[in-house]
Amino acid sequence: MKSIRKLDAVVVGAGFGGMYMAYKLREMGLDFVGFEAADDVGGVWYWNRYPGARCDLMSVDYSYGFSREIEQEWTWSEQFAAQPEILAYAKFVADRLNLRPLFQFETRVVSAKWDDDRSLWIVATDKGDVFEATYCIMATGPLSVPKEPEFGPLSNFKGELYRTASWPKENVSFEGKRVGLIGTGSTGIQVVPEVAKEAKELYVFQRTPSFTMPMRNTKFDDEFTSELKRHYPQIRSVAYNSPLGGVRPQSTRPYFSIPLEQRQSLMEDAWKQGGLAFLGTFSDLLINEEANEEVAEFVRGKIRQVVKDPETAEKLIPRGYPIFARRPCLDTHYYEAFNQPNVHLIDCIGNEIERLSDNAVHTQNETVELDALIIATGFDGMTGALLNFEVTGKGGLPLADKWADGASSYLGMMMHGFPNMFLICGPNGPAVLANIISLNEQNVDWICALIDHISETGQHCFEVTQEAEDQWMDEVRSLAELTLVSKAKTWYTGANIQGKPRGLTVYTGGFKRYRDSCDEIAAKGYEPLVLN
Ligand code: N01
User: Fold this and answer.
1) b/e map 204-230, b = 16+ CB within 10 Å
2) How far is Cα 13 from Cα 15, in angstroms, rounded to an integer?
3) Rounded distance between C-alpha atoms, residue 412 and residue 409, angstroms
4) Reduced to 3 states, what is the DSSP secondary structure of residue 149?
5) Using CA positions, which residue lies closest to atom 16 of ligand 1?
6) Distance from the CA of 425 to the CA of which of 137, 278, 438, 507 falls in 20 to 30 A?
7) How many CB atoms lie within 10 A of CB 77?
């Protein structure tokens, strides 16, 4: 029988959250092990290496701010970095800080169980190893478990099958092939223009059209890069004090505070500028339904201008939900791709995909024969990774039972009934509406300060009270009611997964307000936590 190793902490996941946590725990002198299912660091950027994968937050924001050295040594090549560059950055950080020895790669945690009698976590891996740890830290990411589409099983398709969320490392060629793509969220929208360049025919299966705006990516030149590096401290300060946790123009101008002509001209400017410029043009697009609809109509007009076939344009036009309520997408020639003769839109509204067969996708009304099929149907977001293995808290309470009616947590970082467990960027924090790298850093710093505090008090355990968790959840829900974010059927609300409890599991108050709340709790001596 293998011996049980005793630790101060385990960390699950070697994405940007897990990497920074491992770095900090080592600095604190704690004995810990990190586990990662992949064979290297990078998390979501390790797995999602599909053609066109790119971050829609600016690279200067989507990077660590905790190390002045790394900021100076790493050079971003463009405004919105592509997946290979982001993964290279993660590897660079791992090398520079010698993080790899802190992780066991190609190792999945299969269970994490709280032992009431001994007040510690018992963590088992698929390698048959068992660890006992004071703290269990879940850096499992909000988007790490792909959704299993309703028309499965995917293995019914005998041609080349690719999932964007676990894309092969080897080069994939679609040259001369009939390719199907299912899913038109942020991922599918990035895949289309790339595969359209190669495929003989590309069939895009679209159920809900997304709003997407031109990214208008730019390369950085040497002069820009050296200015950027000189100003990192100021850039970080702006980012950390912003609602997004990143540098983006903010507006205090409500949409209807200026005349129509001026509004139109500002929208034209935002469209030309690209990126998420719209969100920095008016202050109330996520709270004022009428303003939101006018901006949506502007974008619909742009789709009509770009897409030459009016019938295709009408099918691509999103209706029935507010713009920005689904994750706003940024694209590089997405709508233009539908002007190519080899790209075909299959509208799945009223024409659901029913099943896959050896060489075809069968919808209610048609059969499309294919050589290759790409699945970009999204993720079991926010909670999927944590419910993917056995996690039990006090009294053997399964996490699945605690979350049976919806994910509840305190600050998105801890849960009543699960002492000494931390979530990094967990549900009900601002993850996915804020720059996740800034949030990772903030969560990790806050958690490490709490671990220090616990050890200074001579205690070993913390647990958040039910009352504090309930109050936080009330705040999450009441803030959500002020915005239009929950008014679309999205993974933000669990609506993309059959049987998943519905409800927005994201804190919509913005990064700065969230950070202030966390700081206030620390300043007041962590009152909502019981230490023993
Ligand atoms: O997933 P999604 P994603 N039949 O859930 C469709 C981040 N991200 O991977 O809406 C037909 O948005 C589904 O249709 P519907 C970002 O946070 C970031 O694209 O269910 N279609 C939808 O069109 C993003 O929000 C970046 O009607 C089916 C699509 O699949 C998150 O990841 C890049 C279907 C899923 O869209 C998830 O994006 C990429 C079915 N049975 C991703 N089932 C950047 O930083 C599902 N669909 C740029």
Assistant:
1) bbbbbbbbbbbbebeebeeeeeeebbe
2) 6
3) 5
4) coil
5) 186
6) 278
7) 11
What gap in Å lies between CA 418 and CA 384, rounded to an integer? 18
Residue owning tokens 């979530």 = 423
Dihedral, 158, 159, 164, 166 alpha carbons, nearest 10: 60
- Please state the atom number of ligand 1 nearest to the C-alpha of residue 55: 45
487: pLDDT strictly greater than 90: no
Q: Please name which of 262, 318, 266, 257 lies closest in space to residue 288, comparing C-alpha atoms.
A: 257
Lookup: tokens for 383: 């909670």
User: Does ligand 1 lie within 6 Å of residue 348's CB atom?
Assistant: yes
Select from 526, 518, 519 the least CA-distant residue to 411.
518
Residues 6+ apart with CB under 8 A from 128: 2
Strand pairing class (32-35; 360-363):
unpaired
Ligand 1 contact, 329 CB (< 6 A): no
287 C-alpha to ligand 1 centroid (Å): 23
Rounded-to-integer distance, Cα 294 and Cα 50, Å:
34
Q: Can you tell me the distance from the alpha carbon of 477 to that of 479, in angstroms, rounded to the nearest whole number? A: 5
Q: Is the CB of 508 under 6 A from ligand 1?
A: no
**DSSP one-letter code for 278:** G
Least confident of 70-79, 119-128, 204-213, 245-254: 245-254
Q: How far is the CA of 183 from the centre of ligand 1 (A)?
A: 6
Nearest to 504 by CA among 489, 494, 495, 493: 493
Instruction: Check: CB of residue 374 under 8 Å from CB of residue 195.
Output: yes
492 lines ligand 1 (CB under 6 A): no
State the closest ligand 1 atom to the C-alpha of 164, by its place in the atom list counted from 1. Answer: 9
Ligand 1 neighbour 150 (Cβ under 6 A): yes
SS3 state of residue 52: coil
DSSP state of 2: P
CA of 145 to the centre of ligand 1 (A): 13
pLDDT tens digits, one per residue of 226-257: 999 999 999 999 999 999 999 887 889 999 99
Query: 382 near 362, Cβ under 8 Å?
Result: no
